[in-house]
Amino acid sequence: MWRPGPRPRAAGPGRLGQRPPTYAPDLNPQEGIWSLVKRNIGNVAAADLSQITRAVKRKLKMLQYRPEVIDGCLAGTGLVLDA
Q: Which of 5, 27, 36, 81 is the most buried if burial means most Cβ atoms within 10 Å?
């Protein structure tokens, strides 16, 4: 039977002092992007999946040309992008 080994207790070379959360939507900039996409297509009455796919692609394409919106989603996380 497999048993997990001991967890690291102190930070050091190659070790993390804390385990990252399993799911943290507030740290994921793509959550803001998907929120904007879903808000736009929320009232689409689609006859089939291809219409929904086209609506999502169209909104993502529009966001691609609005870097200030994408930067805002990144700034909302508090994370910094290293250039």
A: 36
Domain of residue 63: give its range.
25-75
pLDDT digits (tens, 9 = 90+) for 21-59: 677 777 888 888 998 899 888 888 889 999 999 999 999
Phi/psi of residue 6, nearest 5 degrees = -70, 145
Separation CA 78–CA 29 (nearest Å)? 10
Phi-psi domain of 48 (left: phi exceeds 0; alpha: psi -120 through 50; beta: other): beta
Q: What distance in Å separates the CA atoms of residue 81 and residue 83, rounded to the nearest whole number?
A: 6
Determine the Cα–Cα distance for residues 38 and 32; give it in Å rounded to an integer. Answer: 10
> Is the residue at 81 inside a domain?
no
Residue 62 is predicted with a pLDDT of 92
Q: Does the predicted model carry a pTM greater than 0.85? A: no
**Domain count within the chain:** 1
Rounded distance, CA 17 to CA 15, Å? Answer: 7
